[in-house]
Amino acid sequence: MVWPGRARPGSVHEVHAAIVPTKECAVGSLPRTAAARRGMTPPAGRHLVGMRGINPKDLAGQRKVPLGLLPGAGKIYGALAMVDGAQKYLPYNWRDKKVRMTIYLDAIERHLLALRDGEDLTEDTGVPHEGAIIACASILADAREGGFLVDDRPLPGPTARLLAKYTRKLDRRSQGPSRPSQTSRTRGHR
């Protein structure tokens, strides 16, 4: 392991000195409650500021998938929908019998349309539509990565190309034409 800016510590005391807070970063110097921390936008590695060294676990942890970036509300909504599915079909049923991708894509689209149309909760279970979408997407991801997915989508079509084409056209339109002068608009219309 390479220690930034210096050689690797040789003794337990040197390692301890590398991770013990200095006076500039006393233990109680950061706000203790979530409410007190709201609005703070700490730079990456905020917990290392004022430290005489970097904890080796921090270095290793920085290279891992940052699971904390997925908001808790999304995890909770998804879990609520998964509970409903587990009660109906058994938990992780897609790992026992392969699932068709289009079934879940259609379900995602139905929940998205209902959500867009103003319905917040599913009619049958009262689970937020966002949770059902998250659950379906999670099942698709797990099935894909685990080899339990049957990709029954049609052959690729022109959708991506059309979206790109018309997005560019809409971008040009949003810039709008130059406005004619007041005199040219009123000429002949008095």
What can you tell me about this protein's structure?
By secondary structure, this protein is mostly helical. The chain is 48% helix and 2% strand. The chain has 8 helices and 2 strands; from the N terminus they run ααααβααβαα. It has a two-stranded parallel ribbon with strand order 1-2.
What is this entry, summarized?
Helix content is 48%, strand content 2%. The protein has 190 residues and is mainly alpha-helical.
Q: What's the layout of helices and strands?
A:
Layout: H1 12-19, H2 34-37, H3 56-61, H4 72-89, E1 99-100, H5 101-116, H6 129-146, E2 149-150, H7 159-175, H8 182-186
Parallel strand pairs: 1-2
Helix pairs in contact: 4-6, 5-6
Largest sheet report = 2 strands, parallel
Number of helices: 8
Q: Can you tell me the residue ranges where pLDDT is under 50 for at least 5 consecutive residues?
A: 1-9, 11-30, 184-190
In whole angstroms, the N-to-C terminal distance is: 82 Å
Instruction: Indicate the overall shape.
Output: extended
Spatially, the strands of the biggest sheet line up as 1-2
Q: Characteristics of this structure?
A:
single chain, 190 residues, mainly alpha, two-stranded parallel ribbon, 2% strand, extended, disordered N terminus, disordered C terminus
